[in-house]
Specification:
The protein is 39% helix and 5% strand. A two-stranded parallel ribbon has the order 1-2. The chain is extended, with a radius of gyration of 17 Å. 0% of the residues are buried.
């Protein structure tokens, strides 16, 4: 299980089974969590500096922003050299 290394995401009360290895990521490493690049892209290009009167308007804007993501754009945001070597 991969865990980010943020200081506020730790707990001494967590009981981990020996069969579940933990991989702690550095506290800030966006290249290890490519979804952060997509979130940043959406915020910068489509979701920042806007006011909405209703909650449903916010949801509509978020859905519209997600639909604007093309497969080519997602590949460009995820295109780290190491990611092609990952096998699931």
């Amino acid at each position: 299980m991969a865990m980010d290394g943020a200081g506020w995401h730790t707990s001494n009360a967590l009981k981990v089974q020996p069969s579940v290895p933990l991989l702690r990521l550095p506290s800030y490493a966006p290249e290890l969590n490519p979804v952060e690049r997509i979130q940043l892209y959406l915020r910068e290009r489509h979701l920042s500096h806007r006011l909405h009167a209703f909650y449903t308007a916010i949801l509509d804007e978020i859905c519209t922003a997600w639909r604007r993501l093309t497969p080519k754009r997602v590949r460009s945001l995820y295109n780290y050299p190491w990611i092609r070597q990952v096998r699931i």
